[in-house]
């Protein structure tokens, strides 16, 4: 496997967040494929219990175990894990207290609800803890089990609290296994081995949430990654037509003449009607194109690497994931 320089050399935990509807899970899946390309082994983790990874890869619902779900371009494997907080709690009890059977009995009594009531952030600590354990894990020969881990994380509005929750739990438990566990999580999440990437569309609300999210992470001293601009449409109009159409200065009469000359309309009236309908589409496209340019400039203010992923004509199916993975690699993000 040949070495490849990327924007994120040294990063082993890629946290992917974004406003709902931006394609966060799809981008996380494509990033995992891109990172695994060329013979690497990558774990894709889901923490919200939505089975979004299974839907994207068109597989049955994932159990609470690491399972191979895809082969990356040029070889390489993508494994997936849907983290169940209750199962993670059982692992925690067994790992630190050696009480596996007792832990199962406690879950029947509602210990998970009890524990998260006392320490509301404990659930998040458990799922981040399971993820960071995969980042740190080594085999018997001392080699890393996974070359990278990708987390399909909660939405932008919750990401800073989600990643920073170990501070709260560590404050509740100043000594002992819980504090040790929280310190291990913070040691990975707050390190240069982690990058928190944002998924956005070229629309006002997702862009503003992305900018706010970047600012919040920086304030919390958490590692900011890049911005993946998803569902980017190609610009189809020449600049002079774009400017005129956006200013409502586009003349449908010229378009009607062209349609008639090309034999695409029967008579002057038909050409005029078709030209009027096309003119509305052109003006709408022009307005959207200029809006997207403004939002792209706004995202540049974040001062982080940006990657543009195309709008998939056939939707985000498995073939589309590989197309997005190729675009991610071509732009140096993996």
UniProtKB/TrEMBL annotation:
UniProt superkingdom: Bacteria
One Pfam match: ArsA_ATPase
Transmembrane annotation, as ranges: none
GO molecular function: ATP binding; ATP hydrolysis activity
Domain ArsA/GET3 Anion-transporting ATPase-like positions: 13-169
Protein name per UniProt: Anion-transporting ArsA/GET3 family ATPase
Species assigned in the record: Sphaerisporangium rubeum
Lineage: Bacteria, Bacillati, Actinomycetota, Actinomycetes, Streptosporangiales
